[in-house]
Structures are given as structure tokens and as C-alpha cells.
Fold:
Amino acid sequence: MRVLLVATNRESSPFPVSPLGVLAVAGAALAAGHEVDFVDCMFAPEPVSALGRALDARAYDVLGFGIRNLDNCFWPAPRHFFEDVRVLVEAARQTTTAPIVLGGSGFSVAPHGWLSRLDADYGVVGEGENAFTALLAALADGRRPDGIPGIVTTAAGRQGGGRPSRAPASFAPSVAALARPAHHLVDYERYVRRGGFVTVQTKRGCAFACGYCVYPQLEGTMYRHRPVDAIVDEMEAVVRAQNVRQFFFADSVFNAPRVPALELCRALTRRDLGVGWMAYANAAGFDEELAHAMAGAGCLGVEFGFDAVTDKMLRAWRKPFGQRDVARSLRACREAGLPAAVHLLFGGPGEIVDDIRESQAYLDACAPVDAVFASLGVRIYEGAPIAARARAEGVIDDDTDLFFPAWYVSAGLGQDPMRALDGIARRRDHWTTATDWTSRTMRVIQASANRFGGQPLWRNVREYGRRLRSSRT
Structure:
């Protein structure tokens, strides 16, 4: 079949993220013998026009739209991405009668919300490679796609009101046999020039159960690892084809489990591709051996998604590590000369202003880090543990439509929690909050750093705090 896949994401802050999910589906469709064309909306001045040109050039049997995010998950300045997708789907519907399929992580967190609002035919919940190719096979044979794991229909999306049940997701038993993502469809140089990376996964799944997170819904709770040599081969192929050497491992947590992460670092060191890479990590099992292995394998910096560093909030978020692990992780990075940034999420259950102060004091006592990103406000997703807490406290009710942003912010942070957070954060040059990220000065600096600065871009946060933020305080 002749397939057109569209990467709808246009969010470029803090940098444009390459469309790995769509490329993974494209690779699977190509391996199954289908023809695949691709439209990347990221840099298109007029995405609808770009889509129109593709539809005018050829007739397609199926159109697939990849939705990376539901919204920007940013409490101070929320932005929903429904409209970006709606105009594309409606333009396609006016031009072609081909079946329209929606997918991607942004679709999978709220499939009923998308299908009830858009004139699409099918949706893919969970991983797309097997589900989408099975759907193509059914459509090619003229069969109804009933019973295909992960496939939902528009009719399912329009069933009544109230709170929708979770649509069953599709997860491949093994990711080792999946086709390599179709990296050749993307001009990665355009991403790298703007601070982005080539995105690669080493595994799928997340065994943790953090209180706000939907990763287990998107990828399952069991880790499914790719062979180390296959990962390095994929990276080498991109380097040879496009001479791009900056990568990001987009696993939920790179270092969980620890041993496969170590094996990958050793393989990268042996192959000596001359690449630089970054990854998300947490404190579980992160030690000096791993930090040195990462640094020796070309890691440019690690971003720790701690979310909390006080005993109280680590328990509240059901984190799989404690304060000792946090300290060990940061100390290991310092010893290995590995740049490190910390992400914190304030506003969780029972949190008060003193907890923010305690968080800052605890990190002060640990090894220094290059940047602390202090977020505020927890996006409530259907199926995440925080949703039940929010209903019990009356923050939302059974009729709340979580397709659109709803937030949990602890009442203990007072009437103006952003001001409280800013007041504490600005005591440290390397702490930064949404007030900084939304400032015009920071946007100009960010755009310049994305084009001309080296990775990791957050290494200049401290300089921003010293010179520019202080002038506004």
C-alpha cells in the first residue's frame, strides 16, 4: 500500500525534537513492503500547504498522523496541540478519501479525546510498528481491523460522555525484532543546527510507578531491551549517511536497569564513532562506575529526573530511590567530570513552601550541578495515580475532561505558588523556573544558544542567573 506519514509536532522549545515515533512506524511499514512518504511539520512555514503538496503529488491508500504530545505540560503557560492536528486532518479529509489513522504518545494518553473530536478512521494506542502494519494488511485485504491489538476506531471514541475507559495498548513482546526507524526520511542537520539531536531508544518499558507518570501506559511495565550492537549499528548508519553525531537516548530512564546501560557505554567506547550523546537518568543504581563509563563513551551531559529530593516528597511521588542515592549520583558525575542537570517537580501532594527550601538546601549539600530546572504544577493524565488523588480532593471530578490540561498544585504552597518558588529559586544562580523560561530575554538567549552554543545547552544557566536574571530581581 502507498502510505503518507505526517509528523505533526511543531514545538521547538527548548529545542526541536526529531520524530522518532513516526520514523519507527515508517521503518516497520517499509520492512513490510509498503511504500512510505513523509511530511515533517517541524520546520514547515505552512504545514497545511506542505501536506497539500504531498497529497497533490500522489494518491495514497492510507494517511497516518503522528501526535507526539497532547499539550506542552506547562502550568504557567499551557498550550494544547489539538488545533495543530485538527487543521491538518481536516485539510487531508477535504483532499482524499483514504483512511486516516492517528497515533503517537500524545494520542495514546487520550485516544477517546482525539477520536471524538476529529474525523479520523482509526487510532493506534501504544507502540505503532506491529499495530499499524497489521492495520495496513487488513485494509489491503479488504478486512475489518477488528481485534487488532492497539487499534481503536472513531466509533469507540464517540461512545457517550463521562470518563472513558483505557483503550488497550499494543506492545511488542520483543523490540529486538522490530525494524530500524527510517532515519533517512529526516534531515537531521536541521534539527542539530537548532539544538536538537538524533533520537534513539535503547529499550522500552518502565518498571517504576511514579505518582504523576503515564510512561507505563505508553510502553508497558516490563523492560524490553534492544541488542547493544543493533543500537550502535543504528547510530553508525546515521553518522555515515548524514554526518550527524549528536544523539539523545530517549528511554524513560537510561540507567534502569543499570547493567544494560553499562554494556551500551562499553560498546560505544569500543566502536569509537566520535559521537556525543545525552540521556535522562534517575538515582536508582547510578554510581561512579556508570558515570565514568558514560563520560568515556561520549556522554555530553546527564539530565536527572529526580522530581523531588526530600524524603517526604520522594515518598509522595513513589520514587524508587532515596536521598542517599541522589547524593551518590551527583557525586559520581562530579568525579567523572560529567555535566549534570536536575529536574524538580514542585506542587505535589502535601507539599509546602518549606519543602522547597529543604530541597534547595539538600542539593546545596550535594556535589554541585550545572543547572536545576524547578517546575511547578502537575499535569493530571487519565490513568496516572495523581488523577485518583485529585478526584478525592475535589481538584477534578468524574466529568472533568482530561483531554484538556488540568493541574494539581498543592494548596500548601499558598495563593501564589509561582512567586514562592521564584523567591527561593533566585537565591541560586543555577536554579531556573518558568518565570525565566517564558521571559523574552531567555527566548532570545535560547535561540542563540541552540544555533551557536555547544551541548549541553543548560551549562550556561548559571551565567544567565548571574548576569541577566539578577538585573530583574
Notes: The first helix runs from residue 20 to 31. The mean pLDDT is 93.
